[in-house]
Fold:
Amino acid sequence: MTERLYQYTLPPAAHWSLRVRRGTSLRLTDVEGGANLGMMFYNPEDKLEKYNAPDSLKCQHTFKLTRGNCLYSDMGRIFCSITEDSFGWHDTVCGNTNKDMVAKKWGEKDYQAARNEWHQNGYDSFLVELAKYGLNGKDLASNLNLFSKVIVDDSGNLSLDTSAAKAGAQITLRFEMDALVIMHTCPHPLNPAADYPYKPVHCELLQSAPVSEDDYCMNFRPENRRGFENNRLYHFCR
Structure:
């Protein structure tokens, strides 16, 4: 990756979406430490095809996401690959906050009264962005929570490891097919903070280098090679 094509800092408690082209990378930075970036992917040419968390985890034999992992669609294709990751542990099982959850944890603050200090939630953030493309709640599935490390105790209870947060942590997603990317910077549902956490994420679009035969992500798991082959067939037949 050499050329930076575009950059934007996604504010706290905000949402954003864009179409990312194949051959482009999206580098994301936790500016202050403690951010959570909720994220979903859809095929812009056929929006029924979307990110599939169970397939992404089971075919790579993992519970977490980090460098080398690929993010799969429900058609067995790869939306993007994680080519760089200084954080090392990203959640893809805990889902989103909703309005009631946020109100119970941090109280209600709407945009009309609080402006940028409002208490936005992940579920409604996704719905606002999805509506721009003719999608709605029926089109939601399990989402990613980047920059959020979830740990499990001996009884199987999940909790957010707040000690993992670090300012400047980065993850880079290289897109292997065109994707509609939906994002928000609302808190992780397991965030134990006493006050609503306002954390921005910096986004950079970069030109990716071509994928070579010795590519780390493609060879990270045998299943990933099959995913790349599914992508090759998809693009060949279009």
